[in-house]
Amino acid sequence: MDRIRIQNLEVFANHGVFPEETRLGQKFLVSAELLVDTRAAGKSDELDQSIHYGMVAQEITSYMKTHTRKLIEAAAEDLAEHLLLTYPLMKGIVLEIKKPWAPVGLPLETVSVCIERRWHKAYVAFGSNMGDKRAHVEAGIRVLREEPGIRLGRISDMIVTEPYGGVDQDDFLNGCLELETLLTPHELLEVLHKAEQQEKRERLIHWGPRTLDLDLLFYDDEILESPELVVPHPEIEKRTFVLEPLAQIAPWKVHPVLKKRIKTLLEELENK
């Protein structure tokens, strides 16, 4: 990914733990690497095809002055998120905030925090087989749409499928959606659970009926395993109700473990 660099922008602001820091203020040096595809701007020579680094520098200055934090870790986190939400062409950012007047009582040049944040692509399966199924699904999608760190992409058709797992219950309304997010996988999982809980989802029977089911299928190409979350979601390759709608929106997505495209996995399952 191409990068636009802003190096050691001086900002006088009032971040700090100690009262004199927030009262008197001090100098901070902010450096930012903006991850952006500059190809279009390089070919067209038009500014609207890129990110105006002068405006970004002004935005950094304004935000640092008006959003006071005790820790530069918090200042960096907030500023990175703000810039990524403000500039649609920005795919990611490497941000460093230096504190040259850090009150540590020892001779040093500077103390700094450097973080990298970017948009991640994820795929989520949704389903419902209780009550007004479509209304439950639409309410869950609305929660995702309203989350600041999420941008919804393509959404598949909703398809009617038979229950999976052998439990006697009503047919499901299933589908998949694509999103971009600034959240970590576990933070995204919390949002999915919040949406389920809003629709009064109860986890009483494994593979049982539910008002709303939201499953994180993929998060970039990461392979994760924890007590709370496994990514890619287990048994994707065995579930037509996942593969069929997913193939509508991401047929060429490669499963990072199986090394096969979604389109291929669906064809293999249908031919069994």
From TrEMBL:
Biological or metabolic pathway of the protein: Cofactor biosynthesis; tetrahydrofolate biosynthesis; 2-amino-4-hydroxy-6-hydroxymethyl-7,8-dihydropteridine diphosphate from 7,8-dihydroneopterin triphosphate: step 4/4; Cofactor biosynthesis; tetrahydrofolate biosynthesis; 2-amino-4-hydroxy-6-hydroxymethyl-7,8-dihydropteridine diphosphate from 7,8-dihydroneopterin triphosphate: step 3/4
GO MF: 2-amino-4-hydroxy-6-hydroxymethyldihydropteridine diphosphokinase activity; ATP binding; dihydroneopterin aldolase activity; kinase activity
Catalytic activity field: 6-hydroxymethyl-7,8-dihydropterin + ATP = (7,8-dihydropterin-6-yl)methyl diphosphate + AMP + H(+); 7,8-dihydroneopterin = 6-hydroxymethyl-7,8-dihydropterin + glycolaldehyde
Positions of the 7,8-dihydro-6-hydroxymethylpterin-pyrophosphokinase domain: 206-217
InterPro entries assigned to the protein according to its UniProt record, in alphabetical order: Dihydroneopterin_aldolase, FolB_dom, GTP-CH-I_C/QueF, Hppk, Hppk_sf
Pfam families on file: FolB, HPPK
Alphabetized UniProt keyword annotations: ATP-binding, Folate biosynthesis, Kinase, Lyase, Nucleotide-binding, Transferase
Enzyme Commission number(s): 4.1.2.25, 2.7.6.3
GO biological process, one term: tetrahydrofolate biosynthetic process
PANTHER family the record matches: 2-AMINO-4-HYDROXY-6-HYDROXYMETHYLDIHYDROPTERIDINE PYROPHOSPHOKINASE
Family named by the database record: In the N-terminal section; belongs to the DHNA family.
Function according to Swiss-Prot or TrEMBL: Catalyzes the conversion of 7,8-dihydroneopterin to 6-hydroxymethyl-7,8-dihydropterin.
Descriptive protein name: Bifunctional folate synthesis protein
Lineage, broadest ranks: Bacteria, Bacillati, Bacillota, Clostridia, Lachnospirales
Encoding gene per record: folK
